[in-house]
Sequence to fold (1247 residues):
Amino acid sequence: MILGLMLTVILLPFVGGLLLQFLKFKDKRQKQCYIFAYVLINTLLTYVLLWQGSTELIRVINFAGAKLDFSLKLDGMGIVFAGLVSTLWPLATLYSFPYMEHERNGRVHENIFYLFYTTTYGVTLGIAMSGNMLTMYCFYELLTLVTVPLVMHTLTREAVLASRKYFYYSLGGAAFAFIGLIFLVVYGDSLAFMYGGVLNLTQIGDKKDLLLFVYVLAFLGFGVKAAVCPFNSWLPQAGVAPTPVTALLHAVAVVKSGAFAIMRLTYYSFGTEFLRGTWAQYLLLCIVIFTIVYGCSMAVKETHIKRRLAFSTISNLSYILFGILIMTPLGLVGALCHMVFHGVMKICSFFCAGAMITQAHANYVHEIDGMARKMPKVFGIFTVSALALMGVPGMCGFVSKWHLAKAAFESGDILAVVGVGGLLISALLTAIYMLSIVIRAYFPGNDFDYGKLHDDIHDPDWRMLLPLFLFVILMVVFGVYNVPIVNFFRFVALGRI
Amino acid sequence: MGNTFWTVLFPFGICVVVWFMPRVKIKDKKKTCALIMILASTVELVMALNLMVCDLRGISIDVFDVSGVGGLGLHFMYSGFRGIFGVLTAFAWFVTSLFSYEYMRDDTNVIKYDLFNLLTLGATMGIFYAADLFTLFFFFEIMSFTSFVWVAHRQTREALYAAGTYLGIAIAGGMAILMGLFIVYSQLGTLSFDKMAGNTMVMIGSDSKANITWMFVAAGCMFVGFGAKASAFPVHVWLPQSYTEAPSPATALLSAVLSKTGIFGIMLVTLDVLPMQGSWGVFILMVGIVTMVLGGIRGVMSNNFKTTLAYSSMSQIGFILTGVGMQSLLAEYLMWTNAVQYADVLSGMDGAWYMDSEIVAEITKVFGMAVNGTCLHMLNHSLVKLVLFMVAGVIFMQVGSYELNQVRGFGRRKPFLLVTFVLAAAGVGGIPFLNGYVSKTLLHESIAEYGALLTLAEGSSIEPMLSATSGLMKVSEALFLFSGGLTVAYMTKLFVVLFIQKNSDKKVQEAYDAKKNYASVLSKFAIGVCALPIPFIGMLPNRVAKPVAEYGLVRFGLSELLEQQKENIHYYSFKNLSGALISITVGVVVYFLVVRIMMLRGVFSNKKKEGYRDVFPTWLNMEKYVYRAVFYTAVPFVLGIISRILDSIVDIAVVILRNTVYSDRALPYELPEGNRVTHRIGYSMERIRLLYYAVMRKEGYEPKNYEHKLAMKGTDIFENFRIIERSLSFGLFMFCVGLGLTMIYLLVVN
Fold:
């Protein structure tokens, strides 16, 4: 029953997308209804699944040998990720309808676009529900394959270049991750995800340094999708994709898959017992702390709004990785918090940027002077998301930062404390790059001529605004009252679910 | 029945009403908004007073716990000190909203202004009623963001520039506080003000040096944040522009209330995070002295009415910080001498020294003076700055400028303006019988007496334990009196400009003299209400000032100290008056030297300009040449280079790989004649020949075109070969070769 449901939610979006190619619709409205219907049904089914839960490992197919099998499982960590993805996907789909009507090439390849867009949904759920490393690796590769066409969508020279880069980077990264997989097969008791790790210490013997090296390789391999410096340059470039793709995939699904895979790798395969206090941890911490500051610095310099947000994503993803690398349950709480909260904040700010693009054709920071008067709702929401990203108390960004810093101080590592400094510098830079947009929109200066703005610039229709309002509510609710969700994360991080 | 939480929440609630103002159909929205503001701040004032009355009647006001909000939950509490500043905040908002009724009448964005004004009110109340550091930080951040709108309000280029600096420093400061918060939480395990000091004392007692170092780091971080709001020395750079650019009622609030939130934070750090740590006290004392001297000097040298007041604000904050530093130093002294009370703390350390109770009582008395003086100077400064900035607002409404040369002579024949201005200016200048004299005397006494106490400790085992030296105290005292003189000097400057001198343009002066309706009744009322208490505090220090200060302190957890300090201080004894006289003399000298000679006569500067000129050298602008230069140019440049390199590492690797290992095969290159073999051989032969000529130093090199020749040869051979290939003889030849091979095979294999 549960297995059937799991396979259904993974495959339904793909099947729905395939049918879309053959069905004939009277008008675009009907088509959009159809797409939204199957995405929503999939989300509801996923919710049923999450409600039921199944921490047991379900074997689907066994390949050669006892270790290599295709298996699914839905433990706490999977619930968090699947819950995040399944909540955001219908909203993003709703948002994408008006957006794609504006997009160049939007009408031509629309069916193909939605095929891949929804297939990615199933694949991402597959990553969330993978029961072992092999299964996750398969879905992980599949994710690269199905998202490349989405980046390429506009078929401009830029887009083709960006998608090619994305493809190379991802495949290269997966190759490194594969090395990790092989070593797990050899030195692990099994490939399945077990809280605390599966390494067989007697078998490792004196090869600890080798295993650590492999861990570093695998971390960086999965880290390519999580845009760890120096493997980050694909992410800003991939911003040429339509905004629903950038927002959902490059701020949530794809990049969070990378972070999620690293969580699995660290806490469920190698195990923190093995890794904590080793040179591998410190090396990676250095890289991650650098990425935190680096992403923000680049965002401050960037004037293209979407690319600026992409750089911001790079920095924020490293917050998550930083939490993971503290390698204590508390650190994982911080990482999970930021994974979920950042998903909401970033998708919201991206959607606002998308609204600016479709409504006002404003791609660059200097083009939005005084725009807040024309699009009050969009900029109001953007301001909230900016405050949340900065981590102003009372918004969700603060909660995750709080937990990360708390974990860092409790771990007692001096490097972790340095990392907190990095987080705060990053918060300051975040304030600069987000608020400079907000201030330009609200305070263009008293010599600004509002007549210059086109009269037809206005807030977008409800399909774009509804998701935005929901995100704002989520951001504030998570920020103000987050005890249940943080407690849930705590259970997950302690391996109880 | 008082409730701290609702007092904090009430302005936020009113915000919703103001938020809907643009959406409601009312005839005069601006007027309605202004009335809402007045009403809301009146209600807020009543609520704050109600809390105080409840407390005075002995009804206990419990800690209010809003659990779960923001993770840690918000906690509010009441104490005397909090009560006084809560009332002061509400009062300041009340008078400025009265004043804004006229001042903001012609403003187009008044609804936006009012909205953020209310938010700031709520946040400020939240800061003063906070029961733990997290709640304080929560509201501190809100206040920083909402007050940004004040500074940016006029939206001129200068205002936006100033607002940018204000926000940048506020956010950086907020982050620094957050860092300090994390450290304190990890070290002490609590953020509650009730428990923090105790936990730190336990930590000192256990003598773990590493942890104390962490506490100092935390205190330093928090100092950056709180000091930025208070405009303490290295982080004061936002102050002059922001104060000048914000609308006058907002400036009054920035100076009267918001700077006090920073001081409040620093006091909490001094008393709770690092209690009894004298080295921290020395640091605060030094910062305070630098701030007061620097602010005073710049105040004297400025030729802008409002900027002078802004620097005056900075200077007075320096006085207050000096008091905070003295508190810390005296507390340290007290700990070392009063070994009975602090036995468990001192047991872990060497060199504890017990003095007789008389000296303990003396220290306690001086300590009480420092605490009283700090608290009182905060109050005094708030009142005075409310008056002065509202006067500045009146001037701006009529003149439209703050330039001294423009406002010159404006105050002539305006008795109300004269009385209020003189009360406030002389009050803050420390003239006897006005409020500033009382608080400055207390602060001065605490420094002087501490110096005397230090000589008592000389040669004893306690001497190495104390952080301050008597030399430092002497310098501090001298600079304290000197800064007092600076205050007198710049206030005299403003007074003379406004009320004595005539404008250089006679028509303007006539217009100024003719103005009788320069301010509405409401505005005058607002100014008058603030000016009224000034002489009372000054003339009846032991009746008015002392109870107020003590009410604040008893609930500050220092009641047992004040038990011992019943006697009144003789403010108008010769000893205390002489301090004021020194300051006034210095002030007069500085006034004539700097203002009359340098600024007005133009000695040492450009003589062509008429009237007052700004004589402060522009290249000493810290904001522009240090902060902006470092954070806008130098740091991004260095980081940019590093980022560029790292950003392209992978790309470079890819390019290198592509050009070496993974290079595509070269496209087939069509040779004009011959084939590759002939081309290569011919080319090399040509080169060899050239080399030969060069080595042998032979003259007359001419290319022999080997390539061409070989190509022709090659083509010949190729043609011939093709002909042979097609001929019968070739077939026979191949047959022979085949037979030969067969034979060899047979021979070898068999």
Notes: Residues 329-360 of chain A form the longest helix (32 residues). Chain A has a mean pLDDT of 88.
